[in-house]
Specification:
Layout: E1 2-3, H1 13-24, E2 32-36, E3 49-50, E4 60-61, E5 65-68, E6 78-86, E7 101-104, E8 116-119, E9 123-126, E10 129-132, E11 142-143, E12 154-156, H2 164-172, E13 177-181, E14 185-191, E15 195-196, E16 207-208, H3 211-221, E17 225-232, H4 236-249, E18 252-256, H5 266-272, E19 277-280, E20 283-284, E21 288-294, E22 297-302, H6 306-325, E23 332-336, E24 341-342, E25 348-356, E26 359-362, H7 371-374, E27 379-383, E28 387-390, E29 395-400
Parallel strand pairs: 6-7, 14-17, 14-18, 15-16, 18-22, 20-25
Antiparallel strand pairs: 1-28, 2-13, 3-12, 4-11, 5-7, 5-8, 6-10, 9-10, 19-21, 21-22, 23-29, 24-28, 25-26, 25-27, 27-29
Helix pairs in contact: 1-6, 3-6
């Protein structure tokens, strides 16, 4: 692995990510709302939830069989009279006398006095009597009240993502609704005279707008509620109008395009006037970046090349957004590189890669326009800023896409 001292004129990836996290961190304190449990999957619990009751609620049978006193089946085989039958959802006899049995179904209440259940497989029914062929000890197949959770104990902690198994636990103790954090609302605003919507005919010099739909998809996949997706030409007045709509609807706005050093950088020109910060980050792709706040709403401005936009989202925004929505961190690992790659000195490079067996192979060059090649990738290969060449067989860090 070849190295060279990193350039220091541009902001580091870590510094820019921290700047974005500073802007978005206050969204962790957004208000809560109560939703039906049936609509809570994928939402983040806003406060600790404690069980309002013991679970199991009552002593019940863990098997289809016969509730008995262990002393009555200490010596087997033995035949006992059957005092009744109890199904799940029913009450049972007031008590169980020594030397008798009550037939019980799984989940049915255990009659007072019984201390074990003999599974039906170990018995043979004989009219109103039952032959017990194998004895049991006290406690066998009896689910005692409160052995799962006691009333008042913590059931699900604040910040937990409400997956199916947590929803099952909440439903089991009787919750019909739960307090959850309001979703983070995001708007996407793409820019550029050259962009047209998919499905329209292309005129000379035009390309299809992939960034709007791609950013919306990435946000939705990471638990964000996308409330507006729009496009502005390279016209400051139009951009201001559409930005006002976006900031009025969203907690955070993502823009793409218009942030570099060209003559028609509408995002940079408009947002610099209101205190936006624009400059270079020592990264490839995605070097030009911008952050602003308009009417209290953070605005993250990414470069317009499709790969730059998506890599910028993955590297700078995705980690904090997942924390805000309760999702687990994106897995990162270190694996062998299956081919050799080169990297520019002074810029941390995120190459698109594809896992092959226990290793990873780069799937395209560094170009920020190679969006079709990105479709073949499932990881980003993280090459440090000081590294200029990586030989095949070297260990490299990768982050899952």
């Amino acid at each position: 692995m070849s190295t060279r001292p990193a350039a220091t004129s541009a902001r580091s990836v870590e510094d820019h990510r921290e700047r974005i996290e500073q802007l978005l961190r206050p969204l962790a304190g957004r208000e809560a709302e109560r939703v039906a449990l049936s609509a809570a999957r994928g939402r983040m619990l806003a406060e600790d939830v404690r069980s309002p009751l013991d679970l199991p609620v009552f002593r019940n049978s863990g098997m289809d069989g016969y509730a008995v006193r262990a002393e009555s089946v200490a010596v087997t085989p033995v035949t006992l009279p059957v005092a009744g039958v109890v199904a799940a959802g029913q009450g049972g006899p007031d008590g169980l006398a020594v030397g008798t049995a009550v037939k019980v179904m799984t989940g049915a209440p255990i009659p007072p006095g019984a201390d074990c259940v003999v599974p039906v497989e170990d018995t043979r029914a004989e009219a109103d009597r039952v032959l017990i062929e194998r004895g049991r000890s006290a406690g066998d197949f009896v689910r005692e009240a409160g052995t799962d959770i006691r009333r008042g104990e913590l059931l699900v902690a604040a910040g937990a993502l409400l997956s199916a198994h947590r929803i099952a636990a909440l439903a089991a103790v009787g919750f019909g609704s739960v307090p959850v954090a309001r979703p983070v609302r995001a708007a996407v605003l793409t820019t550029g005279d050259e962009l047209v919507a998919a499905g329209m005919a292309l005129r000379p010099g035009q390309i299809y707008n992939s960034n709007g739909i791609a950013l919306a998809a990435a946000l939705g996949a990471n638990g964000i509620d996308v409330v507006d997706v729009s496009h502005s030409r390279d016209d400051p007045a139009e951009f201001r109008r559409k930005l006002a709509v976006a900031t009025g609807a969203a907690d955070v706005v993502f823009t793409s395009g218009g942030v570099s050093q060209g003559d028609f950088e509408v995002v940079r020109d408009v947002l610099t006037e209101v205190g936006g910060e624009f400059g270079a980050v020592a990264v490839q792709p995605g070097g030009p970046q911008g952050v602003s706040v308009v009417d209290g709403v953070p605005i993250l401005s990414f470069p317009g090349n499709p790969v730059s936009t998506m890599v910028s989202f993955e590297v700078f925004a995705r980690p904090i957004l997942r924390r805000l929505t309760g999702l687990p961190e994106v897995p990162n690992s270190e694996v062998p590189l299956l081919d050799s790659v080169r990297s520019p000195a002074g810029r941390r490079q995120f190459l698109r890669g594809r896992r092959e067996g226990a290793g990873v192979r780069s799937v395209s060059g560094p170009g920020s326009h190679l969006v079709a090649a990105m479709a073949q990738a499932d990881v980003l290969i993280d090459i440090p800023a000081e590294v200029t060449a990586v030989a095949a067989g070297s260990l490299v860090k990768v982050r899952e896409l």
